Amino acid sequence: MAKVLVVDDEPSMVKVLSGLLSQEKIPCVTASSGEAALRVLHAEDVGVMVTDLKMTGMDGLQLLELALKIDPALQVILITAHGTDEVGQRAWEMGAVGYVKKPFDRDEILFEVRRALSKAETGAEVAESPSDMVGQSGPLKDVHSLVAKVAPTSSTVLIRGESGTGKELVARAVHDGSKRKGKPFIKVICAALPETLLESELFGYEKGAFTGAAASKPGRFELAEGGTIFLDEIGDLTPPTQVKLLRVLQDRQFERLGGVSTLRADVRVIAATHQNLEVLVRENKFREDLFYRINVVPIRVPALRERKDDIPVLAEHFLRRNAKEHGKPSVKMDAKALAALSSYDWPGNVRELQNVVERLVVLNLSGLILEQDVRPCLAGRIGDVPPASTSSGGAALGASVAEAEKAAIVAALKQTDGNRTHAAKSLGVSRRTLHNKLREYGIG
After folding, report:
1. Got the DSSP string for 130-144?
2. How far apart are CA 221 and CA 225, in angstroms?
3. For residues 252 and 234, is the Cβ–Cβ distance under 8 A?
4. CA end-to-end distance (rounded Å), the chain
């Protein structure tokens, strides 16, 4: 196991953190300053560094920058009692993998350390977790805390929340913080599979079990052996499948469709739903005994409107990611544009915000996203303020997103004298994407 370097100029904090890691059999070394930490990094095989932000002399951000020059693969977690969301965002931008505010509990810091160790030891990216649910609002911190406590256990988890809030991110974080993190994480979208296929997909089938079953096939529970199965939209399970799932949760056993052999399931079950399962139970659409089996540890993911303080940071996060992806690294967003995004209630939650920011990046021609670019994308639903009518590229925009796209495309074609290759380049999209949009909007 890679070593963890604990850095703090307060001896009591070094003692607490190093003692906690030692109790968990995690090897660690310590340093009382940034300068001493750099010497340790040159001499020791360190995979993770946990450092305080405010220290005499070199602070945590300066240490982060220099440490990553020594070892770009080093996983750095910052701890502070004085940090702000802006400081946290800067730390992530500089390459930190975790940012923990004091006071924190032991489960929270151990979750972050184990997650960082997993990445350091495998050399691979760890699946998204609540740390990727950018922000430090109270409701989001509650999710962090619950995940940190339940992840190391084997308990069944029920994740609840509106569509688009990031329930899968929470499920992956629970998996990544558990002892099963090196095993499969298998996702099943229950609502996406027809009733005739759902049972065979979950539990597999034997050759000849039904017409077309030319060979035996393992189900998702077999594929998830030793790991985690994530049942998204579990409220859509049919009654027969609910019965079989109940047996798996109770006895850890199941049979393939058409099979006679009983198979064992060493699988952790995480379920998610946007539906009110209590109402479904009362309406006899969902088994009461199954509800209690999956509702061992409930985690509620807050809607974005409940954590509006996180919207600007999330928007900047998506802006950087999409700007890089679409070859527009210089695109920025001004303060009024961020304020406009923050004033919207986001019925589609984080997923809707992510899509709007991507659209703003793709359609931007000036390098700066302004308030008047944002408002048409929100369909005029921000208070009583009417949407603006022009974009930074000068193309007339209607109240709907589709009209905004169409107008920007028409303007780009006009500016390039109908050259689709040049128009696609100016819009920051591929020629294939532009071709699809032209067909979609009936533009000749």
Report:
1. GGGS----HHHHHHH
2. 6
3. no
4. 61
Q: Which helix (H) or strand (E) holds 300?
A: strand 297-300
Q: Residue 383: what pLDDT?
A: 39
Q: Phi, psi at residue 129, to the nearest 5°?
A: -140, 180
Q: How would you write 36-97 as a 3-class SS string?
A: HHHHHHHHCCEEEEEEECCCCCCCHHHHHHHHHHHCCCCEEEEEECCCCHHHHHHHHHHCCC
- Omega prior to 103 cis, within 30 of 0: yes
Which residue in the block uniquely carries the two structure tokens 């430090």? 136
271: β partners? 158, 231
List, run by run, the mean pLDDT of 10-residue segments along the chain (444 residues).
88 92 91 93 86 91 90 87 70 80 76 76 42 73 91 95 92 92 87 76 85 79 91 91 91 88 91 95 95 96 92 90 86 90 90 91 91 80 37 37 72 79 67 69 75
Residues 6+ apart with CB under 8 A from 377: 356, 359, 360, 401, 404
**DSSP assignment letter at 271:** E
Contact present, 27 and 70 (Cβ < 8 Å):
no
CA-CA-CA-CA torsion sign (6, 12, 18, 20): negative
Are 51 and 96 in contact by the 8 Å Cβ rule? The answer is: no
The pTM for the full model equals: 0.58
Q: Tell me, what's the pLDDT at 385?
A: 36
80 with 54: CB under 8 angstroms? Answer: yes
The whole-number pLDDT of residue 91 equals 81
